[in-house]
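Worked problem 6 (solution included).
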Amino acid sequence: MTPREIAIAVLAAGGVFFAFVAAVGMLRMPDLYTRSHSASKSDTLAAGLSLAAVALAFGSDVSTIKAVLLLVFMFITNPTAAHAIARAAAEEGIEPWTDEEGEE
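Solution. The predicted structure is:
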């Protein structure tokens, strides 16, 4: 394997790993706010690594420019959407989950 192929494999594996982490976070977290945090951070990183692998695999092609533009678009819109969802939930009065067992 060439160094380029190794870099593509590492980036793609990182993308798959963080997508899995985002999915587990969505299933395991207790409320909207923590789920939103898990999804926005991990999913953005997963998409970034995956699109970087795609851009590297395409090399010097028009598709590389499209992949990079999509990467920039996702880095801007994913956190913005997560913030908008969390803010809308806060304005609707949805309370964050708290662990009240330890309090006396």
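Discussion: The mean pLDDT is 90.
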